[in-house]
Amino acid sequence: MNWICAGVAGLAALCLYLASPHQTLWPAALRRQAFLRWLAVPLVVGAVAAAVDTYGGWCGVCVALAGFMTVLVVLPYLDAWHRKGARHVG
């Protein structure tokens, strides 16, 4: 169950990342920024609620938060790897 909760929280993080104007993983997602930001909220709330129901209060919050933060850390690296030859500002 913790993989499901962490995965749903990861989907929420993916929605937030795709709504960011700096991402280049899926440029078509920029047209649906408001929807993606809205979708992230019920996903993360559902992940936390399911984890809290299964594991208890703080443990459930930590499971969902770990999935959320892991995806938020990995996605910029994946985006940079996707743009291998592109020049970066700075």
Structure description:
- The chain crosses the membrane at residues 55-78.
- Keywords: Membrane, Transmembrane, Transmembrane helix.
- This is DUF3325 family protein.
- By secondary structure, the protein is an all-alpha fold.
- The protein has one domain (2-82).
- It has 3 helices and no strands.
- It is elongated.
What's the number of extended β-strand segments? 0
Provide mean pLDDT, rounded. Answer: 91
Low-confidence stretches: none
- What is the structural class? mainly alpha
Cα(first) to Cα(last) distance is 43 Å
The biggest beta sheet is recorded as: none
Task: Provide the descriptors you would attach to this structure in a database record.
mainly alpha
Q: How do the helices and strands line up, and which of them pair or pack?
A:
Elements: H1 2-18, H2 33-55, H3 57-82
What's this, in brief?
The protein has three helices and no strands. The chain has helices spanning 2-18, 33-55, 57-82.
